[in-house]
Design goal:
This protein is an alpha+beta fold. It is 43% helix and 15% strand. The chain folds into 2 domains: 80 residues, Winged helix-like DNA-binding domain superfamily/Winged helix DNA-binding domain (Arc Repressor Mutant, subunit A, Orthogonal Bundle); 46 residues, 2-Layer Sandwich (Dna Ligase, domain 1), CATH 3.30.1490. The chain has 5 helices and 5 strands.
Length: 138
């Protein structure tokens, strides 16, 4: 994703374009592996050594709140960040802690139809995301 695309995403959400936000969002997109906050910090420190750790966590919170990234929790309760906002699910390897995106429109439709029929009183579904646990073949 280009620098201009990242700037546009921030401004579309009404966020001020700052070097910190740019660097952190760029890191999430470039790492492409559902990075942890620590992965993001390590990545941005190479180019932006003055960005404080607390700033990274604060910016990540703002990016999640403004739906520019999603939180993904692993089996080990490690918080990871996902920059892909279009509908998808996750394949989670319990041995390696690797998360891979899984896109399946047929599954999406099946889940939407299933929950539409369930009529969950007092609950509004905003998103359905599966995390399928297993191991990747070596």
């Amino acid at each position: 994703m280009s620098t201009e695309d990242i700037k546009n995403k921030l401004t579309e959400r009404g966020l001020k374009v700052t070097p910190q936000r740019m660097a952190i969002l760029e890191a999430i997109y470039n790492l492409k592996n559902h990075p942890t906050a620590e992965n993001i910090i390590d990545y941005i420190k190479k180019m932006h050594p003055n960005i404080a750790t607390g700033t990274v966590y604060k910016v990540l919170g703002a990016l999640v709140d403004n739906r520019l990234v999603k939180k993904v929790k692993t089996e080990n309760d490690i918080m990871r960040y996902d920059g892909v906002m279009k509908s998808h699910h996750h394949l989670y390897c319990m041995e390696s802690d690797v998360i891979k995106d899984y896109v399946d429109e047929e599954l999406d439709e099946l889940l939407q139809n299933y929950f539409a029929k369930k009529n969950l009183p007092g609950f509004k579904i905003e998103d359905i995301v599966l995390q399928v646990k297993g191991t990747f073949n070596k």
